[in-house]
Amino acid sequence: MRDRNSRLDTGRGTVSFAQYRYERAAKAVAKLIIATVAAAAIITGALFGLGRIAHWGPFAPGIPEARYSAQSWNTIVVNRWHRIPDDYPAPELTQLANGQQVDSRIYPELQRMFDTMRADGLDPEVTAGYRTQDEQRQIMSDRIFLYENQGMSAKDAEREAGRLVAIPGTSEHEIGLAVDLNAVGAADAEANQQVYDWLAANAWQYGFILRYPDGKTDVTGNQYEPWHYRYVGADVAKDIHDHGITLEEYAR
Ligand SMILES: [Zn+2]
């Protein structure tokens, strides 16, 4: 029998039994911490590897999905930071006279707006409506090819193209709710400007908003595009127009 104050030899000279017990517990805790950290590092490393190689898990590269619900389909925010969700339903499309297509839900208001524009002496057309992701990918690679032909490195060409063309999966044209609107022919800058001016003043009344306003690039991620209009519905369009905000700010 030894009491609490008995001395024992631990190989490092004589220490009290209480101190020996304390040191042993401290070593056990330290070992546990090292083992936990090592396990966490191994798991993180494995997930990271899976993400980069198999594009699976929390470290998979890419852009997070936009929030989407069927009830609020008209306010989905797709931009360079939020891609179209994988489960986004393929839109039902309506084909226009010039061959362009739009989501059928925006067609009646688009038609009504065009009727008014024509009555006001304008001659507008949809120069770009719905696009598949493959078509968007083609536009991107055409642009990169163009820049490379102008002498840019592959990396620079990709970066420059990314400033003007939406990355496939992040273009509003791929959901069919956006239209590029110009004057028929589209080569006449004056005629286009008349269309843009009319739209800036009136499109909201038909549920369409100027999606990329001047001076809002840091919010929308896009340069000013006076031709690109997005359907959000009459109530939301009025709200956005009245407050001079963007869809990103409205949806926040
Ligand atoms: Zn556009």
From TrEMBL:
Pfam families: VanY (PF02557). Residues 101-233 form the D-alanyl-D-alanine carboxypeptidase-like core domain. InterPro entries: DD-CPase-like (IPR052179), VanY-like_core_dom (IPR003709), VanY/YodJ_core_dom (IPR058193), Zn_M74/Hedgehog-like (IPR009045). The chain crosses the membrane at residues 29-50. Keywords: Carboxypeptidase, Hydrolase, Membrane, Protease, Transmembrane, Transmembrane helix. GO terms for biological process: proteolysis. GO terms for molecular function: carboxypeptidase activity. It comes from the Bacteria. This is D-Ala-D-Ala carboxypeptidase VanY.
